[in-house]
Each structure stands twice: as structure tokens, then as C-alpha cells.
Amino acid sequence: MNPTAPGMTDSRNTDALIGLPFNDSDDVLRTAIDEASVPALLMSMVHMTGDLGLLDELPRPFMLIPMDLQGGMNEPDKQAVRDRAYDVVREYRDRGCPPPFVPDAEQMRVMLDVMADGQVTDEYIDYVAADLRLTDADQNGPPLTSTPEQRSAFPVVVIGCGEAGLLAGIKLQQAGIPFTIVEKRDGVGGTWRANRYPGCRVDIANQYYAYSFEPTDHWTHYYSEQPEILRYLEDVAAKHGIAEHTRFSTEVTEAVWDDSESVWRVRIRAADGSAEELRARALICAVGQFSNPVVPDIKGASTFAGPAFHTADWRDDVELTGKRVAVIGAGASGFQLVPAIADDVERVDVYQRTPQWMAPNIAYHDSIPDGARWAIRHLPYYGRWLRFLSWWPLTDAAEERVMMDPGWDDGGLSCGEANRGIREMLIAWMRAFTTDEDLLAKVIPDYPPMGKRMLQDNGTWLTTLQRDNVELIRDGIAEIDAHGVTTVDGVHRRADVLVWATGFDVNHQLGPVDIRGLDGVSLNAAWGESPYAYLGVTVPGFPNLYCMYGPGTNAVNGTSIIYNSECQMRYVMACLDMVIGAGARWAAPRPEVCRDYHRRNQERLKTMVYTHPNVVSYYKNAAGEVPTLYGFRIVDYWKWTRRVDPADYELRT
């Protein structure tokens, strides 16, 4: 087949978001239908025909299962839908691809009842419809009340040009607000530019790990590797002309609020050491929670004679072929790295502190066939429904699996009946790849599933650990010397290269950036190990400061951070418009409002698996709290960030 060349769609063209017209041959259509997600195809057929009767006539999804784009349907049922779809798609093509049918609320209710077997109740309808692009309210937010002239006189500085900082630049530009992005690296991408270790890839399906206003069919894999994610972000930045507003290879050293002039004085330092001060009416901190790598303080680590580096600071100049590699850490990055290098190295020793739960995902490394990509680009709303299939089973639909039952007691191995069922399923998945009981004892966690972000697995991890040149080591590290690693049992293992796969300091996300608000108060000092922000965005005592991916916004299981960033930036724009439209000097959340929100979030998290006493994670601070995590439903966050309530803020004129 020869489908339309893949590439990023144009968000200025509504057709590009819901399906581009086509006149391809019958063979192209048949191939696309055969490779498509049948539940998404079924919904697209309704958009092409306006006939909801198809939903009664044809087989429907059995149930929405995480990481399954086919809704649990059996092959005969899928074939029945595909056969009918072939006629529907050809007829739609022959009619000239007219504007698709857009359901009203009641019709949407019918479609969702079929798609999600009644899981999507009335409170979710507007939320889902907005993400499907059946309305623009989710993307545009409330209308701006300030004038273009007012906005043009309100400069903003953005710290960081990862996915959140890039998004901030796009939305500020669309509103006509002048801005400068300061990025410490030499290009856009943030964590996707920093983390380029072998095997690095996204663990959220690409249809969901993309800006809602910039969908694309260019992905070659369902879960793309780092180079493709980075290229996507670079393409979006180029399309919107963000680079001309960005100071690359430049760090923000401090930002101080000057109340006499109602500006942020932002000190920056370029790669050559030269310093400069930028002045802004508002500051958007988009440094993220994964910008400060952690390297444990292990005796003798500094004496190691070979190359030693963190996965977030990958050394492209270090050749691993034929080397003995020590990988310290078996979390997300180690989990991806080890299988990617095992074929090339002489040996890899993996030092695991805590075993990780793995979510069965047979498609994790699969490429997307051309026909399936054609369907995303051309079939009306197909790509949007595919996105729904990617996120719904993993977010609010999974709530009961992460709640702790106070009366449940199985020795801390699970936190409730639903969670226990998940545990048994995950162990069965592991046993499908090995009968080695010693290895299973090392990899089966002794804490409840979903207490940490689940790793995506197609069997590669356990298969790799059974190679002759790979060893998984559970014994703690006693010392590192010039030539290798010694564990507490006295065994010394030689190494030529040492790789730290030891995560990030999420509770001190500002790192070396010194942000000072009213009365010179330091944000780092105010936060300590328990950062807080109202809705994860605004902080009392810090006027016109807005956080992206701030405290209390990390939804550990299933949610795309890009989706959360869109919610946050919509709220930031509403806050900026409130200040600008009122001609105010500044706004900051009322302390009692922020305290109440933080308290409610932490109390909610105490009922969830993330705070279970058996769960040890870098999200927990010394007090056992998880201040960076978000405990409520995603639909709640969507509702809370749709507009700003002026009563929540101190507005100084």
C-alpha cells in the first residue's frame, strides 16, 4: 500500500484533528481496516454514517483492558466489524468524505456505553467529549477578558523548555503575551533530550503522550523510543516558532520578586559564564520533577577508575561493546537499559534494591503498521477514540485498584481485594517467562502492585535476566573500588563501566534555582522536603509564580504528563488573564486555600497504595509523605483547572 506520507498534522485545520479527506484505493482501505483498532473503528463508523443503530447491530468491545486496543474482542467479532467497516469506509470515500456526524450529549452517552460497557458515567461525559475534540472548550479554556494591548505589556519568563515549557510558550504566543524561555540544555525536549540511554522509551501510549492540539500519525511504535519523542517535540517547537523566543544553553540561577516594581528579576547565566538579568511580570517554572538525578553516596564510588555516569547524563562517547557493565538500579531506566545493551556487552551486573511490578504489555516494543497509521490520519475521529482506549482503562477507571481497604490484611502484599487480583495476575505473567524459582524470588515484589508507577513489559526483562552474561543481584552494595563493586556478602564483581540508574530527587525539584518571593522568602526553604502548591500551580507568598508539573501533580499510574500540563497551562492562562484584565500588580493564592487543598490531597493519598508502609519509593520524603503525588481523579483535576476562582486569590492592585 502507499498511504499518505506520515507526519505531524496541522492543528489549524480542524479536519487534521478529526480525519483528513481521502480517495485511496480499495486495497489501501482494506489493509487499514485489517490493521486498525476495532473498537475505535466501530466508533468512527458512527461518525461516518450518523447511524447509531450500527452499535446494536455489530459486536462491541468485551471490556476495556489496559494496553489492549482491541477491547478484549475475539477474532470472529472483530472480523464482523471489519467486514462491515469496509463497506462503510468505501461509501464514505465515494461520498467525498463529508463532514462527520457529531453526536449530542445523549448520543455520546450511547456511544460511550458501548465503548466502555457503562463505565463512563454522566459526570465523565463532558470530560471525555472535550478530549475527543467534540468541543473546543478543553483546548481553549474560558474566553480571555483582558485586551490584546494589556497582554502585550505583560512579559513572562518560562524556566525550562521540556514538554511543559514548550506548551507554555505556545499558549502565551497564541494569547499575544511576550515571553522568553530559558533552557539549560542546547535544545527543546527537557527530560527527552537528557535521557537518551539505549532502550529509553515512553511508557504511555503515544496517542495519549501528545498534545491534544498536535496529534500525529508519525509514530513508528505504539510506545515510541526517545529519538521519536524528541523529534515530535522539536517539530512542534519549529511549527510554532518557539526557538526564537528561547535562550538555550542558559541557566536560571535565581529569580527574585521585586514588589516595588511588581516584577520578577530573573538572573541567567549563559554557557560562556556571562550573566544577565531579565525582568518579567510573571514567572512560569517548568523545570519538572525529573530534572535532578540522584547518585547514592556509596563508599568508594569516587574511586572507580572507569567511566561512571547517570542514565540522565548518558555518555555517548563511552563504548559498551565487549565491556563489563555494572548497572546500579533496576527501576524504569535500568529496566529499559539492560535488555538494550545485553547483546553487545561482555557482561552486565544489575544491582537491584527493590523489585518492580511489571504491567503485561505485549505491544510495548511493537511497531505500528502503515495501515493503522493511515487510519489515524484519515478515518473520522478514529485517532481520538484510539487515544480514549489508551487512557481510560489506566486512569479513573482503575481507581478501585489503588485504594487501601483498612480491614485488609495479607501481610502487606496487597491493599485490597481488587489489588490482590492484580497481584496474582502479575505473578502469573512473570511465571510465563521463567520457571527459575530463585529468579522469581528476586523479582516478585513484597509490596502491593501499583504502589509505584508500573513498568511496561513484554517479557523482555525476565528473558534478559536469564542470559548467561546477565546477573541480577539483590545483595546491598558495601563498597565500590577502582575496579568494581563489592556487595555486603563480600563478593566483588569487576566492572569497566558504572551506570547509575537511580532515579531523581523529586522532592527538591527546583535544584539549584533560587526563587525568592515576598519579603525575600526562598521557595526551596519554604518547601523543604514537603513542597506544596494550590492545584500544583500557585504558591502563597510568591506573586505571579506558576508551576508546571509542580507539587502534587504527579499521577503515578496511567496519566500522560502532557495531558496534565495542558490542564495546568489552561489554568495558568486563566490566572494571567485575571491579573492582566484587572490591571492588578499581582495575584497569589490565599494561604488557607492552599493549605486546605494540600491537606485534602495528602489525606486522600493516605488511603491509597502509594503510601502503603511496604512501598518504598523516591516519592516518599523522610516523614513518609508523598508531596509530589496527585491523589484525586483526573476528571476532578480537569474540572478544577478549567477556570480560576478569584475568591481563591489575593489580588493586589
Instruction: Name the CATH architecture of the largest domain.
Output: 3-Layer(bba) Sandwich
Spans of at least 5 consecutive residues whose pLDDT stays below 50 are 1-13
Any idea of the CATH topology of the largest domain?
FAD/NAD(P)-binding domain
- Beta-sheet strand percentage? 5-15%
Largest sheet: 5 strands, parallel
Question: What is the overall shape?
Answer: globular
CATH class of the largest domain: Alpha Beta
* Total number of beta strands: 21
User: What's the alpha carbon Rg, rounded to whole Å?
Assistant: 25 Å
CATH H-level superfamily title of the largest domain: FAD/NAD(P)-binding domain
Placed side by side, the strands forming the largest sheet appear as: 3-2-1-7-19
**How would you state the average pLDDT, rounded?**
92
Number of discrete helical segments? 22
Structural class: alpha/beta
Span of the ends, CA to CA: 63 Å
